[in-house]
Amino acid sequence: MDKKIKFTLKSEWFSWLMIILVIALAIWSYPNLPEIVPSHWNAAGQVDDYSSRLTHVLLFPGVIVGMYLLFIALPYIEPRRGHFVKSWGFYSIIKNFMMAFMSAIFGIATYAGLYDQSLSMELVIPVLVGILFILIGNYLSQVKSNFFMGIRTPWTLSSDEVWRKTHSVGGYSFVIGGLLFLVSPFIPTPWNAYIPLAAIIIAALVPVIYSYIIYNQEKTNL
Prior knowledge:
Elements: H1 9-29, E1 36-41, E2 47-52, H2 53-77, H3 81-86, H4 88-115, H5 121-139, H6 154-158, H7 160-183, H8 191-221
Antiparallel strand pairs: 1-2
């Protein structure tokens, strides 16, 4: 493993705190939860699916711990480790945000089960996703070619120049997608469900198509 990749208390305290809080909340809330707990909300913010309280207190903490272990494993198994090191800032931001995001969802779902009151999920989820997309967009151009982070297509992975240009464009497309997510809660139903879909298409599809175009242009110029 590259010596520059080092997990320390300074780098991991936030993730550990999220895990401790989630596990503590699961243990505390279990005796007080009803037999079934809200587990999914539709675009209108209405609960449309439930899980048992045991599933609730085991699944969310299990997913959060598993996600954290995956984040820890990635630097060890990345073939382009040197590039991963150069992308460490992006990696750390996404890791911490995802830990906070999943912890927040668990807290909201637990609150809904305990007090039989659903917070405005139709507002909370798009705002959190919008912030994530904007964060990604602002840091995407700093990500170096690797197999686990960024816009990984056959064309970006085959050329550092295609990777660089694609991630420059991808940064803008993710920010635009994030802004669309942020405004979607204020759009009347059912259009508020279509705006996030458009945001995902812009953020994900535009860079992929662009990478293909740039790759073919590069081949033509050889």
